[in-house]
Amino acid sequence: MAAPLLRHLSRTNVIARRTVLAFSKHNNDMQCRYLRNSKSLPPYLKEQVERRTKVGPEPKRHPSAFGCWNYDAELFAFGKRLGEDFDVDILREAFISRSYIEMEIEERKKVGVKTQIPDTSCNEELSIEGKQLIQKYLKAYLRFNFPYMFEEGICAICEYLMTTEILASVGKLIGVRDLIQSKHYPPTDEEMVDTFMAVVAAVAKSQTEERAGAFVVDFLVPRLVGKDINEMWKLDNPMGLLSAVLQSRGMASPESRLLWQTGCSSIMSLYHVGIYSDKELIGRSPGETLTIAEKQAAKEALKNLMKSDDSRPPFLSSSKVPLKSLDLEKKNPSADLLLKLYSQSDTSAQRATK
Amino acid sequence: MSSRSLPATRLINVGQNGVGRYVCQLARITLRFCKHQASSRGMRDFVENYLVDFARSNPNVVVYVKPHRHRGASIQADYLNGNSHKTRVSKMDMDDICKWIELARTRSGVDIVRKTKNFQTHSPSIQGVWHPFLFKDPSVNLKTFPDSEYGRFEVNEVTATERILQLAERMKQLELEKGEGKSEKDGESV
Fold this sequence. Notes:
The complex is a heterodimer. Chain A has helices at 2-9, 11-23, 28-31, 33-36, 41-55, 71-82, 88-94, 98-111, 124-145, 151-161, 164-173, 189-206, 209-220, 238-248, 290-306, 335-353, and strands at 255-262, 270-277, 280-287. Chain A is mainly alpha-helical. Chain A has two domains: 68-225, Ribonuclease iii, N-terminal Endonuclease Domain, Chain A; 236-343, Double Stranded RNA Binding Domain (2-Layer Sandwich). The longest helix of chain B has 30 residues, at 160-189. The radius of gyration of chain B is 40 Å and the shape is elongated.
């Protein structure tokens, strides 16, 4: 089937056709018979498409399958890409996943080789270390950035950044995917996350812990751009927390007032509630109903008190944060503790009045 | 093909690259060429003159050089997101090849599609959402409507009635001036 096609598509024929076309206007049809009106070409292409759909798409293959692959060079480039100096042996260990070790052991059993691979050579230990490092430095950075934010809010942001989705995409961005030694390609998200954490630990081991902290801040904090950090902490009772906060600061308890309302009998109703303390507006927000508006206004007031409102300055870059002198253990005030403290004092005060 | 049927995206910065630390998205580059054919001349020149400098200044890119007998020269760029782009560079001279390699180095590796806008912002407003009560005076809350002050109909132009009244006043003034002039003249004559 392909033979007549090839013959007529050969270069000399095409050139000949062009020259003929230049001189004759009317016998186009004759000259392009095999190119435009070929009876054999459409069925041939159709068959090709059918076979392709039957087989399915090509499975994704590792770049080494295409012939050009030098693992040492790739590891060197990985370090340079991130601007870090790695100890090659530690980095190599960081890329070996559990599934790869299992696969290797099975293969060796099949062949009958008796040498054993130590179980500790995979990146599990490093990833655990890396996870602790990430949490430690991320929280310290966030506390430095938001000194008035509650510890729960900081933990919520940290949790968001530690999700599999985000860590896997960060790992992908820095080029972990092709370097992981794993049973399957592309590696699973969990393997990507483990490897990313192991890489963080490798930075700490090859250099210093602060360097790993800067690495974490540089690659994870940009993921907060465009995200609402206040919505990450799910607050059930913002009004209760607000009154506790105001009480702890020695301010008057919050009073909510309806500032505006419109379209109350329609489905597009709008209420605008403001919250006052000592006759001073500390937060206001719109809402579809009065309760929603009040809740949102309380959240807004808390945002203003925590200095994490929408008009806050942008995140600090890692070079502007003194990671060396940061107190990693120091925690921000806890909202739960505050609530417990002031709800108790409320009840005792009520008892005293009775 | 209309623009509706073609894929389009907004401007993407892959993973906020460069906000914290910039990571060059080109992972490896494979240069393929023939050692003998004339069409690979430019690529051979590039390999002789510039390749070492390129590799030295970009240690984050792994360079593979692969001679193929009697094939056209090509550049294959593999990116960190898994995409790879192949450019055929046979019959190109060294300068053109330099430009193609520079393009591969500075790209993010996402597919080239039509952009709906050339800009993008993640936080459209830091002042908060617009609502119908923005910049309204709270004293309106205490008014009972209909209110004479708030219900006043303001007209910027001069109405016909006002215009006639103004004319009448002017005429009166003129007449007064005339009368005064006459009386003065009378006085002189007397």
